[in-house]
Amino acid sequence: MKVATTLAAALSLAPTATALNILMNNDDGFGSGNLRELYKLLKAAGHDVLIVAPATQQSGQGGRSDFSTYANLTSPAQYDIVPAGAPAVGTDPNDSSIWYYNGTPAACTFVALDYVLPRYYPGWTPDLALAGPNYGTNLGPFVYSLSGTLGATYAAVSRSIPAIALSASNSAVAYFNVTNATHPAALAAKASYAVVEQFINATTEGSAVLPLGYGINVNIPELSDDTLPPVVKSRLTGEAETDVAVYDEDKKTFTWGNVRPLAAGVNACYNGDCSLPGETYVVANGGISVSVFTIDYDAPSVPYTEMVFAKVESLFSAGSGRNDTEGYQTKPAQKKRMMTGRDVYRM
Ligand SMILES: *[C@@H]1O[C@H](CO)[C@@H](O)[C@H](O)[C@H]1NC(C)=O
Ligand SMILES: *[C@@H]1O[C@H](CO)[C@@H](O)[C@H](O)[C@H]1NC(C)=O
Ligand SMILES: *[C@@H]1O[C@H](CO)[C@@H](O)[C@H](O)[C@H]1NC(C)=O
Ligand SMILES: *[C@@H]1O[C@H](CO)[C@@H](O)[C@H](O)[C@H]1NC(C)=O
Ligand SMILES: *[C@@H]1O[C@H](CO)[C@@H](O)[C@H](O)[C@H]1NC(C)=O
Ligand SMILES: *[C@@H]1O[C@H](CO)[C@@H](O)[C@H](O)[C@H]1NC(C)=O
């Protein structure tokens, strides 16, 4: 209680962050109506906003970071905003703050940080990364790993940038077809903005929007007007979905379905507050869910974890303990490059 009170006092006294540098991305493509509506709201609020988002629809890519092997677009960008043959990374001819890149959402995050910003905006570092709002919700740990919106988000978190994934329940619309403030894309952006604005306003000048390694997953139910639905503190696990492979005997192919009954594995709660409702449940009941995640995916330090390590205890070399000064944990003079699954994939 004391900590909370002190923190609240500090927040009310210190000046809040005003104009932030905000880097936007998504997985639906840089011409997304949802993305552009939120971009407009953030700019209208005085923030310095840049979009670096996929040139085409890139849903379902998760955290996959795939770069184009061509210097130029081999086909036109989304909605023919940019023609084939144009550079694989460039700007919308109508807005030089809106960049596209012909890669996955996570690749766009990295291209933004390592190419677009240093070359074209030297000194501009993002205070916050936003992905979305996505067309369709991204709920639970399984979808977290699948979603390009989340992939763009946790890629930013991995690069020490506070990041928020935003997902709504409306369907795809080109930005130039969002013509009024009651369009579902405009409503999705407005609800997203309401949550993002709170995070920004509650951040004091000079401090980070989120602690290192932290990200936020926001999901928005279907909206019929601009009344903000109840916003609910939630968690990723809890009534979350995962897939089942559904076999078609005639076609001899598979498609996915939601496993029933709900799987226990995807809903196991070890980290965070297990009494919070799952985000899947919150959105199903008409609320906006706000879940906090970290990209420290290690199991918590509980007896289960010790039990798991204990099974292979005899394999662990002497000196693998954390407190050993002579052992493995002391930094090796030369870091050896490790072979990863990605190396095999690239071969
Ligand atoms: C790629 O784009 C650059 C810049 O627009 C252009 O100069 C070049 O001719 C293009 N190359 C191809 C193969 O289209
Ligand atoms: C983009 O720019 C072109 C050329 O100036 C113009 O014809 C078009 O209407 C613009 N589109 C939008 C959506 O602003
Ligand atoms: C934009 O709206 C028009 C009119 O409803 C429609 O014909 C067109 O297909 C839409 N464009 C896109 C890219 O969705
Ligand atoms: C706003 O746009 C939506 C979707 O295109 C349309 O259904 C609605 O009639 C429009 N409302 C107004 C007031 O123009
Ligand atoms: C956030 O701060 C801005 C700028 O001070 C203010 O206009 C706005 O009302 C605040 N929003 C909320 C939700 O507190
Ligand atoms: C490391 O040190 C801490 C604090 O001294 C102790 O609690 C812990 O058990 C030690 N861990 C190992 C693996 O020796």
TrEMBL record:
UniProt cross-references to Gene3D superfamilies, sorted A to Z: Survival protein SurE-like phosphatase/nucleotidase
Against PANTHER family, the record matches this protein to:
5'-NUCLEOTIDASE SURE, PHOSPHATASE, PUTATIVE (AFU_ORTHOLOGUE AFUA_4G01070)-RELATED
Sequence similarity: Belongs to the SurE nucleotidase family.
Q: Where is the signal peptide?
A: 1-19
Q: Which residues form a coiled coil?
A: none
* Location of the Survival protein SurE-like phosphatase/nucleotidase domain: 22-228
Instruction: Please give the name of this protein.
Output: Acid phosphatase
Give UniProt keywords alphabetically: Hydrolase, Metal-binding, Signal
Q: Which Pfam families match?
A: SurE (PF01975)
Organism, by scientific name, is: Paraphaeosphaeria sporulosa
Q: Which GO molecular function entries does the Swiss-Prot or TrEMBL record give? A: metal ion binding; nucleotidase activity
